[in-house]
């Protein structure tokens, strides 16, 4: 029984290990990359995308207790989140190209969309911050609680 009064049937590790192995992204990508010739650059991009996904899922919204964090800390965290979103978008772009090629083998890839994809995602997710995130100077002390 959890302290909240909710009965826990399975913990996080149990849920993950109970998933069918063929439904996990890393296994699927390994199988795909075994059948598709890929460069080291593409594999590195996919590795960064996987790490970015994990950061977004586990730390993306965790800026600390809102009553004690400062603007610079929040902006520093959002900059790290932005970097992760861009890495994830680049990996998604690669996997989407593979999917398009499998589904539409006779059609040429939409190169204009492929070239603009990461910047479109960046504008969609972070455009409302304007120039706040473009500043390169971040006080290192401001990024830690």
The rounded distance between the terminal residues' Cα atoms is: 32 Å
Whole-number radius of gyration? 19 Å
Number of strands: 0
What share of the residues lie within helices?
55-70%
Uncertain parts: 137-145
Protein topology:
Layout: H1 12-18, H2 25-35, H3 40-59, H4 71-103, H5 111-126
Helix pairs in contact: 3-4, 4-5
Offer a few descriptive terms:
145 residues, mainly alpha, 5 helices
Q: How does this structure look, described?
A:
About 60% of the residues lie in helices and about 0% in strands. With about 140 residues, the chain is mostly helical. The chain has one domain. Helix 3 (about 40-60) packs across helix 4 and helix 4 (about 70-105) packs antiparallel against helix 5. The radius of gyration is 19 Å and the shape is globular. Mean pLDDT is about 80; it is low at about 135-145.
Short account of what is shown:
The chain is 60% helix and 0% strand.
């Amino acid at each position: 029984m959890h302290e909240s009064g909710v009965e826990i049937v399975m913990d996080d590790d149990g849920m993950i290990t109970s998933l069918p192995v063929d439904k996990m992204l890393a296994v699927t990508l390994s199988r795909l990359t075994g059948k598709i010739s890929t460069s080291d650059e593409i594999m590195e991009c996919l590795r960064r995308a996987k790490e970015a996904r994990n950061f977004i899922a586990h730390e993306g919204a965790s800026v600390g207790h809102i009553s004690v964090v400062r603007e610079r800390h929040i902006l520093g965290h959002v900059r790290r989140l932005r970097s992760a979103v861009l890495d994830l978008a680049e990996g998604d772009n690669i996997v989407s190209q593979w999917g398009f090629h499998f589904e539409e083998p006779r059609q040429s890839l939409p190169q204009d969309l492929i070239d603009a994809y990461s910047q479109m995602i960046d504008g969609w997710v972070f455009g409302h911050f304007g120039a706040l995130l473009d500043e390169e100077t971040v006080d290192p002390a401001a990024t830690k609680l």
